[in-house]
Amino acid sequence: MPTSKPLKIVYxxxxxxxxxxxxxxxxxxxxxxxxxxxxxxxxxxxxxxxxPLFYPLSEKIKVVNLDIGFEELWTCSFLKKIFVYxxxxxxxxxxxxxxxxxxxPDITVSMLRRExxxxxxxxxxxxxxxxxxxxxxxxxxxxxxxxxxxxxxFAKAWSGGLVNHLKKLDCLVVLTEKDREAWTELDNxxxxxxxxxxxPSTVSTLKEKRVVAISRYSHEKGIDxxxxxxxxxxxxxxxxxxxxxxxxxxxAYEQMLDDLHIDRSRCQLHGRTNDVExxxxxxxxxxxxxxxxxxxxxxxxxxxxxxxxxxxxCPWGSRS
Length: 320
Hints:
- This protein is of the alpha/beta class.
- It has two domains: 8-191, Rossmann fold (3-Layer(aba) Sandwich), CATH 3.40.50; 210-311, Rossmann fold, CATH 3.40.50.2000.
- It has helices at residues 21-36, 78-103, 149-168, 177-182, 223-233, 251-259, 276-281, 297-304, and strands at 8-12, 40-45, 62-65, 107-110, 127-131, 171-174, 189-191, 210-216, 241-247, 267-270, 285-288, 309-311.
- A seven-stranded parallel β-sheet has the order 3-2-1-4-5-6-7, with helices on both faces. Strands 10-9-8-11-12 form a five-stranded parallel β-sheet, with helices on both faces.
- Strand 6, helix 4 (177-182) and strand 7 form a beta-alpha-beta unit.
């Protein structure tokens, strides 16, 4: 008897060279589907051409980089950004359409980036699934509170069209029940929490007088709030230290150490780590200072390594 063809899944995401939560979860799931179920997996990227992937990817998985270069938008003024975006978006739509028509997947999964504006219109025959790894309130936050008229109009027009695009999806996946309830206009939303990214070979003995944070040096992660808290706490627990690990520019936070008169011998800001399990297991307390989260995967990682967790009561993260 002829064997049936393996399920063919395509993931669309910007890049896999960064050490982010989306990259970790996507890689984890894609590897599992390819290795354990034999699914035919392709990941289509738009950024990071020539850069190594941060998380290990199964050799069974194909990676296609369309090399669109949306990261150029990071350095543009708002008005220039509109024209550059439209030009790149046209190219992205053309190339992604051609790729999906060639691959003819059974399922196409969008991580709800720029392809959400047109992916439902691609007639490749696949089911279209959206995965949202951040809460609704902070998804594509244009920060229009003090913005000019043009930016406010653009944000309003984009937000108005978003719900219509999401309604056309076969399914929208969110990480928490609270976020599912936030999409009141939709009836195609389901909740699938993030999985554990690893199973530890050991757990912390809780003997090290060390607090650890695995984060990113960006506003939403609240490292500034963590340092303000630590400036008070370190006076009370003289033998303990704080180590922070993460991607991003930490120069402003390094300056905060001096401004807050924090003892640098007991508080260090590191770059990203390739071995989060080691850092968890060599600590006795995990802290999360985020202003908001999509899920807070680091909380579950720390807990499975035996660490108690202290977290801000942030929406959709620890609160969920």
